[in-house]
Design goal:
Radius of gyration: 17 Å
Structural class: alpha+beta
Shape: globular
Number of helices: 9
Strand order of the largest sheet: 2-1-3-4
Strand content: 5-15%
Bound molecules: glutathione
Number of strands: 4
């Protein structure tokens, strides 16, 4: 493992990279922000496209390694700071469920939510990566009902990622079921969330 654990997060306030910022706060990580102004389209200019050709945040650089895609970013950061206890290690029975919920977010949940947002006709369930919306959501809510966290009593980086249920519920893409609202409130009440949100508010004000 490289000796330095300093990371750079490419971030734009109030976007998907806010989750990565919350995670860095949860981890007590040594980090700096490289802030992009999406209002001026900075994420689509050459300097950032050289970092992530997708022009998307979050992206993280650490010791010469570049990581993009939320799931990968979260897995990488939580493993980099194991002492925070947010990533069950290999050998822990929770490692499998942890990976499952980390990947489920980007491979099943987000595609389903985006289809819903755009009122798109989904692909037939047998070929659709998320099956059908109701099954995708029931799989998630059944897990949340076991609570209090996705891994039961163990809070993990997966819960930081799934705090995105907050915006998807606000945008009415996910129903306001008590099991979802309670989970959002539980995860959202953590001090790291308040610290990251305060930083985002400052950054957003500076870009306004
Ligand atoms: N698949 C990417 C999606 C990230 C994403 O959509 N980020 C948005 C911010 S919410 C973005 O950077 N949009 C800027 C753009 O596409 O120009 C991931 O999981 O990291």
């Amino acid at each position: 493992m490289p000796s330095s654990r300093h990371v750079t997060l490419y971030h734009s306030p109030n976007t998907r990279s806010t989750g990565a910022l919350i995670l860095l706060e949860e981890l007590g990580a040594d980090y700096e922000l490289n802030v992009l102004n999406m209002k001026t389209g900075e994420q689509r200019q050459a300097a950032y496209l050289a970092v992530n050709p997708m022009g998307k945040v979050p992206a993280v650089e650490h010791a010469g390694a570049l990581v993009t895609e939320q799931g990968a970013v979260f897995l990488y950061l939580a493993d980099l700071y194991p002492e925070a206890g947010l990533a069950p290690p290999i050998g822990d029975p929770l490692r499998g469920p942890y990976l499952r919920w980390m990947v489920y977010y980007g491979s099943s949940f987000e595609p389903a939510v985006i289809d819903r947002a755009l009122k798109r006709e989904p692909a037939p369930a047998s070929t659709n990566p998320y099956g059908d919306y109701d099954t995708m959501l029931a799989t998630l809510t059944d897990q949340l009902a076991k609570g209090p966290y996705l891994l039961g009593e163990t809070f993990s980086a997966a819960d930081v990622l799934w705090a995105a249920l907050g915006w998807t519920t606000r945008f009415k893409l996910v129903p306001e079921m008590p099991v979802i609202l309670d989970y959002i409130a539980r995860v959202g009440a953590r001090p790291a969330v308040a610290r990251a949100r305060a930083k985002d508010a400052e950054l957003a004000a500076a870009q306004a």
